[in-house]
Amino acid sequence: MTDTLNLLIGIAAGLNLLALASSRLPSMIRAAALQGLVLGVLPLLLEDDWSVLLVAMAAGTALAKGFVIPSLLRRAMHAASIDREVEPLIGFVPSLLLGALATILAMLLSRSLPLLPEHSRTLLLPGALATAICGALLIMARTKAISQVCGYLVLENGAYLFGLLLLRSTPLLVEAGILLDLTVGIFVIGIVVDRIQREFDSLDTRNLTELHE
Amino acid sequence: MTAGWLLAGASAALVTAGALAWRWARASVAATLAACGAAAAAALWTLTGAGTWDWQPGLALGGQPIHLQLDPMSAFFLALLATVGGAGSWFARGYWSDRERGSSAARGRLWWAAFLLSVGWLLLTRNGLHFLLGWELLAITAYFLITLDRRDPEARAAGWLYLAASHTATLSLFLFFAALASRTGTWELGPVRDPAVAPLFWLALIGFGIKGAVWPGHVWLPSAHASAPSHVSALLSGVAIKIGMYGLFRFSEWLPLPAQAGWVVLGLGLASGVLGVAFALAQHDLKRLLAYHSVENIGIILIGLGFAILARQYGQPAWGNLVLAGGLLHVWNHGLFKSLLFLGAGSVHHATGTRIMSQLGGLWRSMPWTASFFALGAMAIAGLPPLNGFVSEILIYVGLFDAFASGHPAYAAVGSAVLLGLTGALALACFSKVVGVVFLGAPRTAAAAHAHEAGPEQRTAMAVLAGLCVIIGLLPAGAWPLVAMVAAQWQGQPVQNTPLLLTYLGSLHLALGCAGVAAAALLMARLRRVGVRRAPTWDCGYAAPQATMQYTAGSYAATMTGWFRWILRPQRHGEPVHGIFAQPTRVTEHTGETVMQLAVEPLARAVLLLGDLARRMQHGRVQAYVLYILVGVAFIAALALHGGAP
């Protein structure tokens, strides 16, 4: 069980790096979507007795993170008719290296944290840290709004992984709340993307500096 | 219980005064006066031994139970508030009238009532949170009073500076009260015996010191007092800065003090005294000069308080009571004569349109009442017998001499007495300059020549204050029991009966006063008999003297300001005359506010620079904002991992 779990988390961490390294927006969205799908399965692995609620939550998460949000993003991408991150703030190779560094640091850091014995053998915590930092990196390194939304998605996946640590003590309803937050956030960003596009004829968030007083 | 009803009546009257301020000016002022009368009656009731009034209605404000108490210490300051508040509001009817000032006069009445109410609340409340509430209200209402003349940019700038300084003080007091509450476990104020709270006194000293215009926390005071309307200056100087003194007296009574507290208070007092009068000497603006004298007199009060704290440390209540009573009485005295002087200066400004002393002159002839009251106030503030200033100062002097004789802080006592003497001498010189330049001689400008006497309201207000100065001067033994009651509360033990000194002093003053009046009457009679003949003064053979050849304020004080060049740092503009047949030239000298220029402004510039740097971080780039978050989270994580371990 732990091995499968660690394998899936490892895949998720690998997808972080894929998202950081891809210059084309569709592949970045695909990486984020795949990551959401992988993570959606995790609660089923962590819990031994599957309740209806648990299964429904896992399915809902996988559906939302793996299909609904990515398809919204794809639509926004088509509407804005761009599919490339042309001029990233941090280049693709340096961001890849930074992401790798963050993953290693997360591994090292989680060793020094006082964890419950049943968590200490899983990669849940380092995976969560690495995913959250990579998400933040993605937001920092990219200029197009859609790439940044992907960054937020990845960041949320990290937070979701953290949440899995507390699966026993946190009701799934809280998870549902987080997911709802995210969906609303994506909607808002979708609207913002639309407005930026109309205002500046581009999705470069650097244009937003023109708005500050 | 009577005190309670009187105070309730006073608050109700003040609320009415505020409500009537816009439409019914006369009724509003009448209500303010009634409130002041009731508050003064309640205060005197307590000071004459009616006991402490304590009221805990079981109501809460801001989550804290309301607890009001009128004990002798509160009553002492409340009496001053009521006196100056009443006199000022009556003065304003003539000085800041609706006819001349329009809506500003109405706003003045409203804020005046609000100010009196908040200070009254501040004096009576026994809860730290409520104290801060009153403190903040005091700062805000005073700000609106200073900036009553909104169109005057100087007044706006002065109000702004006052507000900034006031909030620096508030910050310190927030820390003080919060730390005190966390230590004692309650916001209720009262005597604390826990020696661990002693260091908190420094916070109180900073907060109350800035409010009380203790040097070097006085930077806000000169401009605020100079630019505010004069009745407001009187209230600020007579009452607002005394609230700082109230805080110091109050918390030095209630809290255990650090060992050096007495010395530090004494040092601040000496610095305020000497430097305050030195700066006053260098001023050209009449009201700015008076403002610096407030710093000086606060210094005298602090010398009294500082030695009282030392006396408590050395276990010497005998002379400790004398200096304490001197300091306390000087709170009243300064409140009275400084308000009188500000009202006089306001009348002069009202009559001539200028506050620059060298543009005045010869006003005694055109405004004899104002000039007489002002001269009386000047005598009082210079500490001349037979007036009240002399009474409080001699109490401090005698206390210092006794301290010297008792041999405990002997050298400090002698040194302080010498510096106090220096302060008094310089104050005398300064007020001889003011009275000489403003009221004597010939008018220097057309404005001064066409001055008119102040109106009846202004004169009555000044007469009341002057009368009180004279009464305390002639009956010092009568004032002693009131002050002794407060001193006994501060000391926590009864204070000796009226010292023989004051009884003698009273008779002496009475004799001196009678002699003075008789001499004046004699001179008057002679003058009537002989008649007045006007002729030029002795003119060194130059036959065409002009009014501008008289001593100016600057030239009169030049020698003395020369001694203090190192701190006054005067700036001279223009070329002095050279050679025998000199070309016409123009020399002006300007003395800035040294603490402001050397300490506050560089500090403010540094803060602004930091602020600009910080503002650069706010540039609108989302990417960098996320980086800030990440760095912040990493920092907190590092803190939790390494710093948080016990």
Give an overview of the whole structure.
The complex is a heterodimer of chains A (213) and B (646). Chain A is mostly helical. Chain A is built from 8 helices and no strands. Chain A has one domain. Chain B is mainly α and 646 residues long. Among the domains of chain B are: 273-527 and 551-572, no CATH class; 594-643. Chain B is built from 25 helices and 6 strands. The radius of gyration of chain B is 26 Å and the shape is globular. The interface between A and B is medium-sized, with 17 and 12 residues.
Shape of chain B: globular
The main sheet of chain B comes to: 2 strands, antiparallel
Major sheet size, sense and barrel closure of chain A = none
- The number of helical elements of chain A comes to 8
Largest interface: A-B, 17 and 12 residues
Q: pLDDT below 50 for ≥5 consecutive residues: which ranges of chain B? A: none
Helicity of chain B, in percent? over 70%
Global structural class of chain A: mainly alpha
Count of helical regions of chain B: 25
User: How far from one another are the termini of chain B?
Assistant: 55 Å
Total strand segments of chain B: 6
Sketch the topology of chain A as an H/E string, one letter per element: HHHHHHHH
Brief summary of the model shown:
The complex is a heterodimer of chains A (213) and B (646). Chain A is an all-alpha fold.
Keywords:
heterodimer, A: 213 residues, mainly alpha, 8 helices, B: 646 residues, two-stranded antiparallel ribbon, 25 helices
Write the layout of secondary structure elements.
The complex is a heterodimer of chains A (213) and B (646).
Chain A: H1 2-21, H2 25-46, H3 52-80, H4 92-111, H5 117-120, H6 124-141, H7 145-165, H8 172-200
Helix pairs in contact in A: 1-2, 1-4, 1-6, 2-3, 2-7, 3-7, 3-8, 4-6, 6-7, 7-8
Chain B: H1 2-20, H2 25-50, E1 53-55, E2 60-61, E3 64-65, E4 68-70, H3 72-95, H4 98-101, H5 103-124, H6 128-146, H7 153-184, H8 200-211, H9 221-227, H10 230-254, H11 261-281, H12 286-314, H13 317-352, H14 363-366, H15 368-381, H16 388-406, H17 410-439, H18 446-449, H19 456-474, H20 476-491, H21 500-530, H22 553-563, H23 565-568, E5 571-573, E6 588-590, H24 594-616, H25 622-643
Antiparallel strand pairs in B: 1-4, 2-3, 5-6
